[in-house]
Design a protein that fits this description.
The chain has five helices and eleven strands. It is α+β, with helices and mostly antiparallel strands and 219 residues long. Its EC number is 5.4.99.-.
């Protein structure tokens, strides 16, 4: 497995996760995961092979991996305290108006389908800010700044405002996603940038993952 490394020092690394690779091990996952790859690369024993957070299988982009237990728990703390900032890029259906805004709606598992999430009463507070980079009648190319870290938050929020992500087999609707898949091979979502305080140097580190070719073709 070849994984592009965007940043690395003795404490941590940031990879550019390719789409189509699962991050964490699970009984249902038979193929090699990022966690497997990281476990082979790291010399010290770290919980979950240093995987501090996760992104979906079909999402590409920045993923933070700790090399030591101390760094792992410090980065987890930064996530919990919302000190780590992430920027995503997505291609969504339709012309998104207004060009800048925020989406506030509680996200939780759907009672009738535990594999999916949605806007549900009693869900956890969730907010996503966004800015449109480019749009036409068919698609919008959007920057997204999640202020909370709920599972599938960006995908659910964009569905909620009737601008689902292109290729989203879970939330764009069966007919729409089937048509999308004739053009794209995955969910058009990319973890573009991540900013965090380095646990050792205490300096702000910002890492950017190049925009994938498959997104550039559609955008």
């Amino acid at each position: 497995m070849k994984i592009p490394i965007l940043f690395e020092d003795e404490d941590l690394l940031v990879i550019n996760k390719p789409p189509g690779i699962v991050v964490n091990r699970a009984q249902s996952v038979k193929e090699e995961t990022i966690e497997d790859w990281a476990g082979k690369k790291l010399t010290s024993q770290v919980e979950r092979s240093g995987i501090v957070h996760r992104i979906d299988k079909e999402t590409s982009g920045c993923l933070l991996i700790a090399k030591t237990p101390h760094v792992f728990f410090e980065l987890q703390r930064q996530f919990k305290e919302r000190e780590i900032h992430k920027t995503y890029l997505a291609i969504v259906h339709g012309s998104l108006v207004p060009e800048e805004g925020e989406i506030r709606a509680p996200v939780g598992r759907l009672p009738w389908n535990r594999e999916r999430f949605g806007i549900v009463p009693g869900g956890r507070e969730a907010m996503t800010k966004y800015k449109v980079r480019k749009s036409d009648d068919n698609y919008s190319f959007v920057e997204l700044y999640p202020q909370t870290g709920r599972t599938h938050q960006i995908r659910v929020h964009l569905k909620y405002i009737n601008h689902p992500i292109v290729g989203d087999y879970l939330y764009a609707g069966r007919k729409t996603s089937r048509a999308d898949r004739q053009v794209v091979g995955r969910v058009m979502l990319h973890a573009w940038k991540i900013s965090f305080t380095h646990p050792s140097t205490k300096k702000l580190v910002t890492v950017e993952a190049p925009i994938p070719d498959d997104m550039m073709k559609v955008a």
